[in-house]
């Protein structure tokens, strides 16, 4: 049975293959380290922004899977560096001869599988961010006023920090604040006629105003922040609501966070794709180098030609042999016929 994808490797091509693998392995280790950094950065970002995602959002699974894939890629790269270097030194290769095969199997099944899973998540999960951010921001804005409610005491601080840090206001714009009560009832005077009228006029009994929190104000604006009565054209005659960037942040936090997280996921996905390609090249090269050296009995400086391959026989023949062996093993043994009864012996004495 002929081996799968054989390749003749004399001494000089084997040396060049080992040297190229040494370089590719360092690149793989570097790519694995970069994935670890990108995954860690995304995890830190999600730790701060997780409040603004729906509880059912699966996006945090992406950096966790990428973290595992990056660690395996880093280990595979370091193994490739050691094995390719040892293949050029007769004194260093014998310890690698017995462990290189299992390491290749583990790197292909474990590392390749993790990279495929992480790459698939990087392509699929960012699409779920839109709805997750929409639901999370609606909840965050609704709890902005609950500064003394257990479980939501930090909502106001987190939303203010979000709007100041990412230069955004509301979900899709500053008018989103008009539809939620963002002032705590503790700081409302029930005896004030305007407050009482606004609460009574609302079906849900909420205090709604055409104002925004201070964190919506652009500190780079040359004029004082306009927070209240924003829909009243007579209250601010010099304020043009068609140009909110002169005083308030123009973008909503939904668009800003969606673009930010998708950019991080896109960068991570690109690194995963590059790492997958590098790991495939390193594992293929190590397999050819290993089988070529095994053909020489582990004598790495032998001058004769040898053949490297992926599998020792054709896949069809391997599967057929395994199927036949499995069929023979599972086939019940034929039942043995019961021994024939011996004919009765004649009594010679009676005869």
From TrEMBL:
Belongs to the PRPH2/ROM1 family. One of its GO terms (molecular function) is protein homodimerization activity. Residues 330-351 are annotated as: Disordered. It comes from the Eukaryota. Keywords: Membrane, Sensory transduction, Transmembrane, Transmembrane helix, Vision. Pfam families: Tetraspanin (PF00335). The keyword Membrane applies. The chain crosses the membrane at residues 21-44, 64-83, 103-125, 264-286. It is a multi-pass membrane protein. The keyword Transmembrane applies. GO terms for biological process: camera-type eye photoreceptor cell differentiation; detection of light stimulus involved in visual perception; photoreceptor cell outer segment organization; protein heterooligomerization; protein homooligomerization; protein localization to photoreceptor outer segment; regulation of gene expression; retina vasculature development in camera-type eye. Gene3D superfamilies: Tetraspanin. It is found in: Cell projection, Cilium, Photoreceptor outer segment; Membrane; Photoreceptor inner segment. InterPro entries: Peripherin/rom-1, Peripherin/rom-1_CS, Peripherin_LEL, Tetraspanin/Peripherin, Tetraspanin_EC2_sf. This is Retinal outer segment membrane protein 1. The gene is ROM1. Its main location: other. One of its GO terms (cellular component) is photoreceptor outer segment membrane.
């Amino acid at each position: 049975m002929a081996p799968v994808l054989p390749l003749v490797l004399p001494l000089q091509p084997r040396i060049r293959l080992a040297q190229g693998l040494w370089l590719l392995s360092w690149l793989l280790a570097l790519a694995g380290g970069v994935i670890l950094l990108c995954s860690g950065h995304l995890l830190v970002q999600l730790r701060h922004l997780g409040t603004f995602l729906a509880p059912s959002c699966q996006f945090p699974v992406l950096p966790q899977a990428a973290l595992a894939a990056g660690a395996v890629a880093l280990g595979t790269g370091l193994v490739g560096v050691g094995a390719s270097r040892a293949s050029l030194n007769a004194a260093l290769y014998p310890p690698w001869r017995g462990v290189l095969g299992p390491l290749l199997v583990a790197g292909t099944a474990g590392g390749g599988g993790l990279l495929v899973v992480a790459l698939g998540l990087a392509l699929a999960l960012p699409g779920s961010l839109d709805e997750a951010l929409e639901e999370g921001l609606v909840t965050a804005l609704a709890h902005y006023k609950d500064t003394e409610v257990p479980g939501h005491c930090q909502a106001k601080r987190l939303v203010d920090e979000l709007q100041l840090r990412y230069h955004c206001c509301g979900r899709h714009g500053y008018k989103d604040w008009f539809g939620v009560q963002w002032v705590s009832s503790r700081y409302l005077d029930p005896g004030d006629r305007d407050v009482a009228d606004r609460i009574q006029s609302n079906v849900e009994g909420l205090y709604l105003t055409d104002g925004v929190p201070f964190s919506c104000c652009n500190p780079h604006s040359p004029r004082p922040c306009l927070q209240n009565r924003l829909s009243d054209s007579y209250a601010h005659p010099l304020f043009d609501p068609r140009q909110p960037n002169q005083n308030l942040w123009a973008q909503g936090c939904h668009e800003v966070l969606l673009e930010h997280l998708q950019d991080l996921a896109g960068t991570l996905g690109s690194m995963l794709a590059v790492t997958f390609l590098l790991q495939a090249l390193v594992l293929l090269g190590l397999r050819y180098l290993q089988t070529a050296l095994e053909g020489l009995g582990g004598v790495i400086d032998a001058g004769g030609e040898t053949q490297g391959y992926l599998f020792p026989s054709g896949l069809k023949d391997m599967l057929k042999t395994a199927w036949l062996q499995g069929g023979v093993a599972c086939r019940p043994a034929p039942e043995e016929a019961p021994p024939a009864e011996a004919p009765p012996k004649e009594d010679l004495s009676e005869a």
